[in-house]
Amino acid sequence: METTKKRGRAWGLALTALLALAICGYAFALYATPERASQQPFVSAKGELPGLWLYMLWAHAVTAGTALAIGWLQFIGKLRRSRPVLHRAVGYVYAAGIAVAGVTGLYLACYGNGGWSGRIGFATLAALWLYTLYRSLRSIIVERKPREHGEWMLRNYALTFAAITLRIYVPLAAVLFGVTDTNDSFIVIAWLAWVPNLAFAQWWISRSRKKIQRRPAGRSAASSKAG
Predict the structure, then answer these.
(1) Phi and psi at residue 145, to the nearest 5°
(2) How far apart are CA 116 and CA 227, in angstroms?
(3) Which InterPro entries does the UniProt record give (predicted)?
(4) What is the end-to-end Cα distance of the chain in Å, rounded?
């Protein structure tokens, strides 16, 4: 049973890595430079926007894509234990990427599709992105609590994973409901892209905590029986 669970987690992490690298490649292909970003159809469809917007979009795409591509590495337990220096180095790059992506995300949310619902949804995502990053860094640097650090990073990466879920829901909205205009679909997708992700992360954390709480009791009971 334990072997099956480990294999399941390994396959889940492998799928996460595959999707993350694919979206990162997509982001870099389309947004490698501000000039290339300006050539994307949805950018021209936005109409007249402040000149700063394009550079914020470019910075957001590059830093969020980088964080998405490397973040899953932090959840490989063997890597954390055997290569702590690498784990910290990847963590620094990831944190820097999320910091930039979160700030630019707040700015971009003001111009987001989906009306007020879409804008508030994306702004909330960006704010929680920055908050969970802050809590994860504080828990390891100030409080020296590695388990809590890992929990906050899981929540944070669940929000980062919204880059993937959003790109799944947009075509699904078109295929299942015939909604092709993101001004309409983002009313819901701006929330759907990240709320279930965060809920799943919280469920996973709660389940892991219960397992940890049960271990000492189980061992104590086994010891008592042996005695």
Answers:
(1) -120, 90
(2) 65
(3) ATPase_P-typ_TM_dom_sf (IPR023298), DUF2306_membrane (IPR018750)
(4) 28
What are the structural domains, with CATH classification, of the chain?
Answer: 11-37+48-210 (1.20.120)
Which of 191, 179, 86, 67 is CA-nearest to residue 130?
67
Distance from C-alpha of 145 to C-alpha of 205, rounded to nearest angstrom: 15
Mean pLDDT of the chain: 90
Nearest 10 degrees: Cα torsion 74, 93, 103, 185: -50
pLDDT in tens, 114-133: 999 999 999 999 999 999 99
Rounded to whole angstroms, the Cα distance separating 187 from 83 reads 43
User: 0.85 cut: is pTM over it?
Assistant: yes
Mean pLDDT check: name the lowest of 4-8, 10-14, 215-219: 215-219
With a cut of 80, say whether residue 13 has pLDDT above it.
yes
In angstroms, rounded to a whole number, what is the distance separating the alpha carbons of residues 137 and 146?
Answer: 10
Query: What integer is the mean pLDDT of 185-189?
Result: 97
State the number of CA atoms in the 13 A half-sphere of 56 facing the CB.
16
d(CA 35, CA 92): 28
What is the CB neighbour count within 10 angstroms for residue 22? 14
The one-character DSSP state at 68 is H
CB distance 87 to 80 below 8 Å? yes
Q: What is the pLDDT of residue 217?
A: 52
